[in-house]
Amino acid sequence: MKISVDGGALNQRSDQHFGTFVFSENLVKALSLYDKKNQYHIYTFKNLKPKLFWMKGRISIEEWKNKQDIFLALNQALPIYSSGKIISFCHGLSYYFYPQYYSTKDVTRLNSQLREMIKRSDKIIVSSEKVKSELTSMYQYIERKVFVLPFGIPLDMVVSGHPERSEGSSDQRERYDRSDSSASPQNDRKPYFLFVGMNHPIKNIDFIKEAFNQFIKSKENRDYKLILVTKNCSRSRLCYLYRNATALLTASYYESFNFPVLEALSQTCPVIGLKSAIIPELKTYVNEAKDNKEFVRLMKIIPLKPSVQSINRLYTQFNWKNYVKNLVRLY
After folding, report:
1. Are residues 123 and 203 in the same domain?
2. Structural domain range at position 305
3. 273 φ, ψ to 5°?
4. Among the residues of 37-146, which ranges form H helices?
5. Distances (CA, A) of 322 to 27, 33, 149, 325
6. For the domain that residue 204 is a member of, what is the CATH number?
7. Structure confidence by residue, pLDDT tens digits, 64-94
8. Using only C-alpha atoms, what is the Rg of the chain?
9. For 156, phi and psi rounded to 5 degrees?
10. What distance in Å separates the CA atoms of residue 69 and residue 179, rounded to the nearest whole number?
11. Do the domain assignments include residue 8?
């Protein structure tokens, strides 16, 4: 089969290499590794110009000129025309449930994309049961075409001894940024907590800062640092930060999956998460808190690293080989 893929998220600026970028990059790589039967054409700014009206105009023209069997809408947006069936990927509904953290323009655009996706998609892929439940409660008639495929551990973070290790992508991103002077290499030996993600209101970073400030009020904790990775960071550097952190902290108001949690766990980094930031599929792997008081308490007891059994179970549950196998079945 001939399959076209929206690689628009791969065009994001280097300071936005989270979420949909990590997903798109890993899925494109995984398709090339694990599906040798079908032909894939990835649309990006590099191979499809001009950028003006790229999705609605340029891709639509390409789809009309070169007939494809399936269009994979990796980022919810759809072209005006697609010659084949449409399989869309919905990455959550934070803008719907928490519009106060988004601009009016973004809320309008994203809700419009959502309605079009619901109407035109033959199948819709979500990353967690949580998102499926939300979608089907809003649009009950689509339940039969919504499928849950949990993301895999990023291929460049698969550790030695696991089957995807030799197939993982190489480190191609060199620049990193950290929001705190404690992130400089000479300070890495000091104990630190870590946050990884976009600098966006939905991530509730102020909650993490406040919890950390409460944590270091105790004399025995004053040597700890808080490292905030809010812009692109080289993958090798990010692995180092995960492996040496006391714990990853996450407190988002809403998450459809939460890639940094999966990345951290894969590198044996404990995770402390506010309940709203942890999807059901990851609850058994993390230290979950209901409020600020419990969050700080979990920081103070210094969580143990995930066990070998837990990590092995993680690799079985979240891997790209299974993701591609289950996706191809939906074609």
Report:
1. no
2. 172-317
3. -135, 140
4. 60-65, 94-97, 104-120, 129-138
5. 11, 12, 9, 5
6. 3.40.50.2000
7. 999 999 999 999 899 999 989 999 999 999 9
8. 20
9. -85, 5
10. 45
11. yes
Domain match, 150 and 218 both: no
Q: Tell me, yes or no, whether 166 lies in a domain.
A: no
Distance between CA atoms of residues 272 and 278, nearest Å: 9
- Give the span between the Cα atoms of 51 and 151, in whole angstroms: 29
The answer to whether residues 286 and 223 belong to one domain is yes
* Runs of H (alpha helix) within the chain: 20-34, 60-65, 94-97, 104-120, 129-138, 205-215, 235-244, 259-266, 292-300, 308-317, 320-329
* Span 161-193, pLDDT tens digits: 555 544 444 433 322 233 333 344 444 578 999
pLDDT over 60 at 220, yes or no:
yes
What's the CA gap between 123 and 8, in Å, rounded?
Answer: 20
Q: Both 230 and 113 in a single domain?
A: no
From CA 76, how far away is CA 113, in angstroms rounded?
7
- Residue holding tokens 């600026």? 13
CA 144 – CA 147 distance, rounded (Å) = 8
Are 243 and 208 spatial neighbours (Cβ–Cβ below 8 Å)?
A: no
Query: CA-to-CA distance for 198 and 228, rounded, in angstroms?
Result: 10
Q: Evaluate whether 253 touches 276 at the Cβ level (below 8 Å).
A: yes
The per-residue pLDDT for 326 is 97
Residues 197 and 138 in one domain: no
Q: Which two tokens stand for residue 281?
A: 């599929």
Residue 263 contacts residue 270 (beta carbons within 8 Å): no
Contacts of 279 (CB under 8 A, 6+ apart): 127, 128, 129, 130, 255, 256, 257, 258
111 located within any domain: yes
- Say whether both 271 and 149 belong to one domain: no
Number of structural domains the chain divides into: 2
Say if residue 84 is in the same domain as residue 32.
Answer: yes
311 and 177 part of one domain: yes
The amino acid at 204: N
Give percent of the chain above pLDDT 70: 90
Taking alpha carbons only, the member of 328, 304, 322, 34 closest to residue 150 is 322
